[in-house]
Amino acid sequence: MTNRRVTIKQRIITAAIALPCLILLLGYANPAVFSVFLTLVLFLSLREFNRMGLGNDHRLEQLLAAVGGAVVVPVFYSGNIALLLPLFTVAVLTFSLLFLFRLPEITAVHHRLGWIILGLVYLPLLLGHMMLLRLLADGRQWIFMTLIAIMICDSCAYFVGRKIGKNKLYPAVSPNKTIEGAIGGLVGAVFAVLLVKFTFMPGIGFFGAIMIGLILGVMGQLGDLFESLLKRACQVKDSGTIIPGHGGMLDRLDSLLFAFPITYYIARYFYGG
Question: DSSP 3-state assignment of 105?
Fold first, then answer.
């Protein structure tokens, strides 16, 4: 019980510090400053991701993957998306040659090289959409909306699941999640987007707000489940320890990784972003 109280206290303190900083960053930082921030987040996330899967092995490859993956954000910021093809091609060739000539245990090559390549697609590609979203005319509002929807979705799923959850959602991947909690998360996400619609984004419309809330609620929870799958595969409880009381960067980003690309395409193609 004491450890649980300490963890809850840590979470409250961390949230009290992090949320105002994030709000100030999104509200007042220009896209260039925001790109620097997101590049750092992506670099740290890739370091954490590769350490989770590879431990202390392949330190050179892990560092190069974090640097190479983080470059995606400046590329998105520059608007020259075509650079991604040669960038990814160079990355695949580089890591293939590194694994060829810095020969690890041969029977583990496909797992370890595959993990590095997965990280270069999973994190930079998905999180990079946050930079694309920020560059839209109303990008800040869409980012705020997504953050609010996912945070309320996660909170509602957690509390509803703890209070009335009885039917397991996907026990093989996440034993504690329940169907009741997932439904609570969807309701929370819809409520969050409706709240945003009636406060600072009236243009999305009532029906649009409901649909966006449902979509973000589903995608956010799927993103959470996917990261749980990766953690179970690596046999770890948290992806890292960088955030006191919250685990690692990926533990905070998992739901957002699946949500931000969807938000970007909704904003751009359905609302003229």
Answer: coil
**Residue 268, amino acid:** R
The span from the CA of 145 to the CA of 233, in Å, is 32
Angle, vertex CA 36, rays to CA 154 and CA 133, nearest 5:
55
What integer pLDDT is reported at residue 239 of this predicted model? 74
Single pTM value for the model: 0.90
Give the torsion sign (CA, 204, 210, 214, 215).
Answer: negative
Tens-place pLDDT, residues 40-63? 999 999 999 999 999 999 999 999
Residue 27: both structure tokens together: 């509200």
* Residue 243 β-bridge partners: 247
Rg of the chain, C-alpha, whole Å: 19
- Please tell me the distance from the alpha carbon of residue 218 to that of residue 98, in angstroms, as a whole number: 39
Query: Which pLDDT tens digit goes with each residue over 242-271?
Result: 665 556 788 889 999 999 999 999 999 999
d(CA 137, CA 118): 32
Question: Dihedral of the CA atoms 121, 123, 125, 131 (nearest 10)?
Answer: -160
Confidence label for 203 from pLDDT (cuts 50, 70 and 90): very high
Q: What are the extents of the domains in the chain?
A: 28-135, 138-273
Tokens (6 digits) for 92: 């695949």
Please check whether residue 222 is in contact with residue 269, taking contact to mean a CB–CB distance below 8 angstroms: no
Query: Burial of 214 by CB count in 10 Å (0-12 exposed, 13-18 middle, 19+ buried)?
Result: middle
